[in-house]
Amino acid sequence: MILLNFSFYIYPVNQLETYEGVFAKYVTPTFARIPAELLLNSNVKFKVVKARKGKLGDFMPINKDGKPQITVNGNLNPFAFLITTLHEFAHYQTFLKFGMKVAPHGIQWKNEFKQLILPLLYHEGLPSDIQAALKKSIVALKASSCTDLHLSRVLARYDNPDNVLLHLEKLPETCTFALEKRIFRKGVKRRTRYECLEISTQKTYLIHALALVKKLDDYG
């Protein structure tokens, strides 16, 4: 997994080429203009951050500087980064139109997100498997890509092949694994999560099928 050891801010300077150049580091160049134009036409601070557990991106209506802020994990593969960025811009646009009076992932947000996603569906640069997964996803839109298991699995195909972490669902039952410096044994599946026994405490926890874990082949 590629982890960024820094974060940086993109400040609006009315230079589309500058924005495209920065986004091209995180999305495929053919898609760099999409987030660049969104940022150019917004009053939001955009921040690329180190990987976080439990979230791919985040929208804050008012940051410490009094401005709206979007953050996106910098270790995402190009297509996951793009879709997460659009997810967060949908939050920003919903906030501009409705303030804090609507649910975070209510119908207003869903409508904004669909409008941002639709142009991707017919873009020749989008792989056919992601295109199909997105089409299926927006029919019954989930709160985020991480809760849409099918879309998340398809996006994971484009992760760094050198990644030593695996999705929990890829491990065989009874396999031991490490997660956040804790060691578990995988159990049976309960909908989107697995019952996993923590070795040290003998307590059972429900862990998401797409949690990134390290397999421990030789753990005794």
Give the SSE layout.
Layout: E1 8-10, H1 16-23, H2 33-40, E2 45-49, E3 57-60, E4 69-73, H3 78-98, H4 107-117, H5 128-139, H6 149-156, E5 166-167, E6 176-179, E7 182-190, E8 193-198, E9 204-208, E10 212-215
Parallel strand pairs: 2-4
Antiparallel strand pairs: 1-2, 3-4, 5-10, 6-7, 6-10, 7-8, 8-9
Helix pairs in contact: 1-2, 3-4, 5-6
Please, could you describe this protein's structure?
There is one protein chain. This protein has 220 residues and is an alpha+beta fold. The protein has 2 domains: 8-156, no CATH class; 166-215. It contains 6 helices and 10 strands; from the N terminus they run βααβββααααββββββ. It has helices spanning 16-23, 33-40, 78-98, 107-117, 128-139, 149-156, and strands at 8-10, 45-49, 57-60, 69-73, 166-167, 176-179, 182-190, 193-198, 204-208, 212-215. A 6-stranded antiparallel beta sheet has the order 5-10-6-7-8-9, with no helix packed on it. A 4-stranded mixed beta sheet has the order 1-2-4-3, with helices on one face. Strand 8 and strand 9 form a beta hairpin. The protein is globular. It starts with 7 loop residues before the first strand and ends in a 5-residue tail after the last strand.
Summarize the structure.
It is built from 6 helices and 10 strands. It is of the alpha+beta class.
